[in-house]
């Protein structure tokens, strides 16, 4: 899952962002990992202290109760994530993302350099 950040949230602790995510998608904080450029963000750090800037994209990885990474796209093994938050199959992930017109529109709005 990819999300977009607005400037006002950058001073918030990562754990509080995860609390918002928990309310929105019903995934407990303990089952969430947020990544910036392949690096996991610590719950205790603030987004701006972790190097997150306006317009940056974060990757949310959800972990099932058994500590296995949850796969998106209906369980497609080609969309699995590595423990560091990178795509196990980057080409399959790119194809999947390109097929989602709404997501592509939002990505281009936030990251026009894409």
Automatic annotation (TrEMBL):
Q: What is this protein called?
A: Ubiquitin-like domain-containing protein
Residues of the Ubiquitin-like domain: 14-67
Region ranges (Disordered): 65-90
């Amino acid at each position: 899952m990819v999300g977009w950040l607005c400037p006002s949230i950058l001073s918030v602790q990562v754990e509080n962002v995860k609390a918002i995510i928990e309310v929105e998608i019903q995934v407990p904080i303990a089952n969430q990992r947020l990544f910036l450029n392949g690096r996991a963000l610590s719950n205790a750090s603030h987004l701006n202290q972790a190097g997150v800037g306006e317009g940056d994209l974060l990757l949310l990885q959800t972990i099932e109760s058994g500590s296995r990474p949850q796969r998106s796209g209906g369980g497609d093994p080609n969309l699995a994530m590595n423990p560091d938050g990178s795509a196990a199959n980057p080409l399959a992930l790119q194809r999947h993302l390109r097929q989602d017109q709404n997501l592509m529109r939002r990505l281009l709005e936030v990251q026009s350099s894409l």
